[in-house]
Amino acid sequence: MSSTPAAAATAAIPSIPRDDDGPVFRAPWEAHAFAMALTLHDRGVFTWPEWASALADEIKRAQAAGDPDTGETYYLHWLATLEKLVASKGVASTETLHRYRDAWDHAADRTPHGKPIELRAEDFAR
């Protein structure tokens, strides 16, 4: 595993939930958020030390706001960090991120359980 992007991330960010085979995820969206961070890192949007610092700041902020830090919210912090870095680096504005989040929520609401979620133009019209 040591030569993969996931291995590089887990080496640089010790808090990533993992087992002997690498990162572990409780839900598919967590793996997607992890993969997005790997891709953005590979494209030079941020360094792993920069990411680790931003993630630590986000976790501290959440703890100060009452997060019990049981590990169950780790990838919520990961996603919040991802959104903040993407916005601060100018990759996408906060407004664009919110627009897509809302569109995905709309698409998910109309999609039967177990079926793939597909974004449509009308999902952005809300």
User: What percent of residues adopt helix (DSSP H or I)?
Assistant: 55-70%
From the N-terminal CA to the C-terminal CA, the straight-line distance is 43 Å
Major pleated sheet: 2 strands, antiparallel
Fraction in beta strands: under 5%
Describe the global form: globular
Number of domains: 2
Write down the Rg.
Answer: 16 Å
As residue ranges, the low-confidence spans are: none
Strands of the widest sheet, in order across it, are 1-2
Mean pLDDT: 90
Report the count of strand segments.
2
User: Helical stretch count?
Assistant: 5
- Helix and strand sequence: HEEHHHH
Q: Helix/strand-derived class?
A: mainly alpha
Features:
126 residues; mainly alpha; 5 helices; 3% strand
Note down, in words, how this protein is organized:
The protein is mainly alpha-helical and 126 residues long. The chain has two domains: 5-89; 93-126, no CATH class. It has five helices and two strands; from the N terminus they run αββαααα. It has a two-stranded antiparallel sheet with strand order 1-2. β1 and β2 (22-23) form a beta hairpin. The longest helix has 17 residues, at 48-64. The radius of gyration is 16 Å and the shape is globular. It starts with a helix and ends in a 16-residue tail after the last helix. The mean pLDDT is 90.
Produce the secondary structure layout.
Layout: H1 5-12, E1 18-19, E2 22-23, H2 28-42, H3 48-64, H4 74-88, H5 94-110
Antiparallel strand pairs: 1-2
InterPro entries: CN_hydtase_beta-like_N, CN_hydtase_beta_C, Elect_transpt_acc-like_dom_sf, Nitrile_Hydratase_acc_put
Pfam families: NHase_beta_N
Protein name: Nitrile hydratase accessory protein
